[in-house]
Design brief:
Elements: H1 20-41, E1 43-44, E2 54-57, E3 60-63, E4 75-77, H2 100-106, H3 109-113, E5 116-117, E6 120-121, H4 125-135, H5 149-155, H6 158-162, E7 174-178, E8 183-187, H7 199-205, H8 225-237, E9 269-272, E10 275-279, E11 284-286, E12 324-327, E13 333-337, E14 342-345, E15 361-363, H9 369-376, E16 383-386, E17 391-396, E18 399-402, H10 410-416, H11 419-423, E19 428-436, E20 440-441, E21 444-448, E22 450-451, E23 461-462, E24 467-481, E25 486-494, E26 497-507, E27 512-524, E28 529-536, E29 540-553
Parallel strand pairs: 1-2, 15-16
Antiparallel strand pairs: 2-3, 3-4, 5-6, 7-8, 9-10, 10-11, 12-13, 13-14, 14-15, 16-17, 17-18, 19-22, 19-29, 20-29, 21-28, 23-28, 24-27, 24-29, 25-26, 25-28
Length: 555
């Protein structure tokens, strides 16, 4: 029977669908066909026997067998509790599924022996042992020797060994075994009956042995002390291989009391521990920094490198009585510090030196005014300390001038800073005045104050000269003040931009007059417009506002 579909209509309650009875009949017919099919495949999920005796239970499949007894006796195919997805594949052929104990039952002795390799059939234990016996041989190919140690000892006895001894001919050296005395004999004499194998015989005849009687040849080697010393001397006189010690970092070459004289090397590198000394053909290079006192007797060229100290002060310490000097490569002095306290920048003039262009001598030692001209020769740019007046003097414009120091006397100050000097440096101070009379009620922000003529311009006062603003001062009347703190402020603007300088007053009481002042350091240039702008909180009402800017113009 085909599946029966219940007609539900085009939309809810449109009257075109099946009625309730017709729909229920179709449902019953569909269920009847499904249950009929389940009976045909004989699946029982409640343990009740069905036609073909197959059911589900105990987390697996149950087989009732040909004799149906409602699974009273059954075979259950139940897996272990899985911990993953497992796949068991059955081969694509007919056959039996074997249990573990079937392997030992099926694969028995006959099964194994019938396995052949390259046409040969396997043999059992008795056949293998017989094969070993049949193929075991002794020297006579008569006695079978098995793997049993007792049989081996029984076969190889003393008589067996003695029958296979080899006797040498006269002059030959042949070993043999005597089973009676259980020793190894050796003899080069033809008389094999004489036992010359004991230690007494060897000790008694060793004094008669003399290697000098042996003819020297490539196959006959013997050594005396004289020959050994000669061979060693010849070998070390011309070495044709590397000299490598047997152990690393163990042996010395020479000693503190027995030193080698000269070391002649043609290579470019000497390795000392973990560093090296290398000759690149022009310079000697050290693999690590040199930690030593270096004494240089000739000139030292550093190339593009520098002398520096990374852990302490850099000090130049010449021997006693010698100057510290810096010169160009051509020998022109740059800097000199002498042992008597003189510091020279440029040439050192000395007592009688009259070198042209000799300038820049800084002398801070004890120097009198009388000795000054004699020793310094009055070169332009010279600086020295005058011990007579406790002053520092510089020679310029063909005269000695006193440098400005705290030790200058009042007369010198008066002579230098006269009225003309002061007038030329005075600063003119002015005030710019602003006002705002109408009431400002409630919250206000950036209200431009009016100039003294009552005009409010866009950018305020424009000044023809540069200067700076130093103060903002204001006062006003507050006619209404709300609860809590209320703030009234005036800010300086320059060229239409807020400067951040603000004079502020916070009101916490009732109405009344308020005032404030703030220091300012705001420079301005020619034609910079200066303004004051008012801001106040929402609970304030103010009027009669007056303010001024204090400015200093640069003359």
């Amino acid at each position: 029977m085909a599946r029966k579909i219940i007609n539900t209509g085009a939309f809810a309650n449109d009257g075109a669908g099946d009625d309730l009875r017709t729909g229920a009949t179709k449902i019953n017919d569909n269920f009847l066909e499904l249950y009929s099919q389940l009976d045909n495949i004989s699946l029982a999920t409640s343990g009740v026997a069905v036609a073909n005796g197959i059911g589900y239970g105990f987390y697996g499949i149950m087989f009732d067998g040909a004799t149906s007894d409602s699974f009273g006796t059954s075979t259950r195919l139940v897996p272990e509790d899985p911990t993953q997805i497992n796949t068991i594949t059955l081969r694509d052929s007919s056959g039996e599924v074997a249990f573990v104990d079937d392997i030992g039952r099926i694969i028995n002795r006959n099964y194994i022996l019938n396995i052949k390799n390259n046409g040969y059939q396997l043999k059992d234990e008795n056949e293998i042992l017989q094969l070993i016996y049949d193929n075991s041989i002794d020297s006579a190919r008569a006695v079978a020797i098995t793997i049993d140690s007792a049989e081996l000892l029984a076969a190889v006895d003393s008589a067996y060994v003695q029958s296979r001894q080899i006797f040498g001919t006269p002059g030959e050296f042949q070993p043999y075994i005597d089973s009676a005395v259980n020793v190894l004999r050796s003899d080069h004499d033809s008389d094999i009956t004489v036992n010359r194998f004991d230690i007494d015989f060897l000790l008694g005849n060793q004094a008669a042995l003399n290697t000098a009687d042996v003819t020297e040849a490539p196959s006959n080697l013997y050594y005396t002390k004289t020959r050994t010393d000669s061979d060693i001397s010849q070998a070390f006189g011309s070495i044709s291989q590397n000299l490598i010690p047997a152990d690393d970092s163990t042996y010395d070459l020479g000693s503190p009391t027995n030193k080698w004289k000269d070391l002649h090397l043609s290579g470019n590198t000497i390795f000392l521990g973990n560093t090296s000394i290398t000759n690149d053909g022009t310079n000697i290079n050290f693999g690590t920094p040199i930690n030593a006192e270096i004494v240089v007797t000739n000139s030292m060229d550093l190339g593009s490198n520098v002398i520096q100290s990374s852990t302490n002060s850099l000090r130049l310490r010449p021997a006693g009585g010698r100057d510290v000097r810096l010169e160009t490569i051509d020998g022109v002095p740059i800097f000199t510090a002498s042992t008597d306290g003189d510091v020279y920048i440029g040439d050192s003039p000395g007592t009688n030196a009259l070198l042209p262009g000799n300038k820049g001598w800084l002398y801070l030692g004890v120097n009198t005014e009388a000795a000054r001209s004699v020793k310094m020769n009055e070169r332009h740019g010279l600086i020295h300390y005058n011990d007579n007046h406790n002053t520092i003097e510089v020679y310029a414009d063909n005269q000695w001038d006193i440098l400005m120091t705290e030790t200058l006397v009042d007369s010198a100050i008066v002579a230098i800073i006269d009225s003309d000097h002061v007038k030329a440096r005075q600063v003119s101070s002015h005030y710019l005045h602003f006002g705002y009379d109408p009431d400002l009620i409630g919250l206000q922000s950036d209200i431009k104050m009016r100039q003294t003529d009552g005009v409010t311009t866009t950018t305020g006062y424009h000044l023809p000269l540069p200067g700076k603003v130093t103060h903002i001062t204001f006062d006003c009347t507050c006619t209404a003040v709300g609860s809590g703190g209320q703030t009234f402020s005036i800010e300086l603007w320059k060229a239409g931009v807020a400067t951040g300088y603000i004079a502020t007053f916070e009101l916490t009481g009732g109405p009344g007059s308020v005032s404030s002042s703030v220091g300012v350091d705001e420079p301005f240039g020619p034609n910079d417009g200066l303004q004051l702008r008012i801001s106040q909180d929402s609970a304030l009402t103010t009027n009669n506002i007056m303010a001024s800017l204090r400015i200093e113009e640069t003359l």
